[in-house]
Design goal:
The protein is built from 14 helices and 17 strands. With 419 residues, the protein is α/β, with parallel strands linked by helices. Helix 5 crosses helix 8 and helix 10 packs across helix 14. The strands form four sheets. It has a six-stranded parallel beta sheet, sandwiched between helices. It has a five-stranded parallel beta sheet with strand order 6-11-7-8-9. The chain has a four-stranded antiparallel beta sheet with strand order 5-1-4-10. The chain is 35% helix and 17% strand.
Length: 419
């Protein structure tokens, strides 16, 4: 994390959130703040564009050695800024790993420890679905080590707040979701914290499945957790599920879902692929084809369920009732795993092995040639040249084989009575 103060008031609007930072707190004392290295760099850039640079770094070790300072839990992210600089030079700095249970004796309170997860679990809904799985496992370890009434806050960057709030809605083990930066006084009130800032700069990030990486970051040995416990949970209010079930009663049963969009054009299915794929699915005539978003194809080719997408819970409730899901790399398959829905995912630039090794009903197809591409490993892009190269790889897909494989998965799951 980065600790800093400001020498003059500054107000910023970031991702529709208005944030005011000042040199003094409401109580008239000197104010200071905590945030991630990447968020601090964003603050600096925005300050420069406004013609001011009011930020002053504070000494991390001095703050964390303050009597009563919160305990850092899991993997230590101290000297985050130096790790960022090292990564830019191709250097990897070691990070101390502490078993979560060994940190418990140092907590100021075990009755109702005040805990925070700094930087959250990423930026996407899928990141948070998986992250919450890791958090629930870590929470159980804390309860087993003698803590009581364990819950946590998540402090996330502004650009992640909206998606995080969607994924975390209704999660009973979370107390609050707050936007970075956070006042140092609030930070010092904590009993313990996990610092998940700058995950991309950590050597382990690209070396193991995401759920294992998050468990390790939280201080839990991934090998100590059974594979079935690494699967996701999605809670759907009964009233929402009943509403969706009533709306789906007019749809031919069983039905499969096709989902062709994501949070970045880099992973979206091109329209030139979508149209012939719909034709392939239609020709099989085994299951009704539906989509939770409108598709650029004739209406008689599929059932448009976009009117049911009233909230993320409604979205999940529809996936829960599908016989199968054919999707691009987005949050859909994390939801499908929670309900054992046969799912085929087309991956572009993100390695499938990072996400689905513990999802028994989810399979992957990776675009041929993408692993040899300079774009492999890229998470987001709307660069026209990059997208053109990715679309050329989409054109190599054998849509007949893809459709046959998907239909076989769905037929097997349907014959077995679902998972």
């Amino acid at each position: 994390m980065i600790y800093f103060s400001v020498n003059q008031p500054i107000t910023l609007v970031r991702n529709e959130l208005r944030q005011s930072l000042g040199p003094e707190s409401a109580a008239g004392q000197r104010a200071a703040y905590v945030t991630s290295a990447y968020d601090f760099m964003d603050l600096q850039r925005r300050g420069s564009r406004a013609g001011v640079q009011p930020f002053q770094l504070l000494d991390e070790e001095a703050i964390l050695s303050t009597p009563g300072a919160p305990v850092e839990l899991g993997v230590s992210n101290r000297k985050e800024a130096m790790r960022y600089l090292g990564r830019s030079r191709g250097e990897a700095m070691p990070m101390a790993v502490r078993p979560l249970e060994s940190c418990v004796p140092a907590l100021k309170s075990r009755e109702r420890p005040r805990l925070a997860i700094i930087n959250g679990f990423g930026t996407g809904i899928g990141d948070y679905i998986v992250g919450l799985t890791a958090w629930r496992i870590a929470r159980e370890r804390l309860l087993g080590a003698g803590c009581k009434d364990v819950s946590a806050e998540i402090w996330a960057r502004t650009h992640a707040i909206s998606r995080a709030s969607v994924a975390c809605a209704g999660e009973p083990t979370l107390r609050a979701l707050r936007a970075l930066p956070i006042g140092l006084d609030r930070f010092l009130e904590l009993d313990g914290f996990w610092d998940l800032s700058s995950m991309l700069d950590r050597p382990a990030f690209r070396q193991m499945p995401t759920i294992d990486f998050l468990l390790l970051s939280l201080g839990v040995d991934p090998d100590s957790v059974e594979p079935k416990s690494k699967r996701n949970q999605v809670r759907i209010p009964a009233a929402v599920q009943s509403e969706v079930d009533a709306a789906l009663s007019d749809l031919p049963q069983p039905f499969v879902l096709l989902h062709s969009t994501s949070s970045t054009p880099l992973r979206d299915m091109p329209d030139v692929i979508l149209r012939p794929l719909i034709d392939e699915l239609d020709q099989r005539n085994q299951f009704a084809v539906a989509s939770l978003h409108s598709l650029p194809v004739p209406q008689d080719k599929y059932f448009d369920l976009s009117h049911l997408f009233q909230s993320h819970k409604h979205f999940c409730a529809v996936i829960r009732r599908a016989a199968g899901l054919l999707t691009v790399d987005t949050s859909t398959y994390h939801v499908a795993d929670a309900f054992g829905i046969p799912t085929l995912v087309v991956f572009t630039t993100v390695p499938s092995e990072r996400w689905i090794p513990y999802y028994p009903t989810v399979q992957a197809i990776t675009l041929e040639g993408i692993r040899e591409s300079e774009h492999f490993g890229l998470h987001r892009s709307d660069d026209r040249e990059t997208l053109t190269e990715i679309h050329e790889l989409w054109n190599k897909l054998d849509l007949g084989q893809l459709t046959d494989r998907f239909m076989a998965m769905v037929a097997h799951g349907h014959a077995a009575g679902g998972a």
